[in-house]
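To whoever picks this up:

The nightly regression suite flagged Ribulose-phosphate 3-epimerase as changed. Nothing in the input moved, so I suspect the structure step. Input below, exactly as stored in the fixture:
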Amino acid sequence: MSALIAPSVLASDFANLEKEVKMLNESQADWIHIDIMDGIFVPNISFGIPVTEAIKRHATKPLDVHLMIVQPEKYVEAFHKAGAEIISVHIEACAHLHRNIQQIKALGIKAGVAVNPHTPISALEDIIQDIDLVCLMSVNPGFGGQKFIERTYDKVKQLKNMIESSGSKALIEIDGGVNQNNAKALIAAGANVLVAGNFVFSAEKPKDIIAQLKTL
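Regenerated output under the current build:
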């Protein structure tokens, strides 16, 4: 079974966002990945609720919202109202992670936990059965176009073992530096969802790149 493909609009042309979203609608993409950055949790600011609402007006694919922000509990409901069908919060940003997951689940949508490169997989042991998605960062969060961290393969395998041994149904999503050189190996290691930003949007024919990823 091929992986789900979730192109990240962080790498899209913001001046032509409607056109970019319509391109994704017409492609074989499964989700649309939206990176929300606050300039505090990560050293960059991207966009927020109004832009998410604008994307939702044109999108026919589920919105996969990745909150790279402090105190995500303050904004979860607003992003759900803006159109999010999957919301991931960072384990490093949540003092009360179980409560945060319960908050997302109570909205009737999928709950994910994102994990920075330096955070061990073992930190997920007490939450893995409660979540729908683990977003493994394969670069340090904050900026697109970074080099893929090779240690990610081992972390995917560890996480896959944890999911299977616990009976969890969580999907493994890889976010950062995904391209033609590593996508197949990530899927072989156990990845279920590939987030691709620059690799898709910098291509001359983005829909073809998405189609190629779907064949792996």
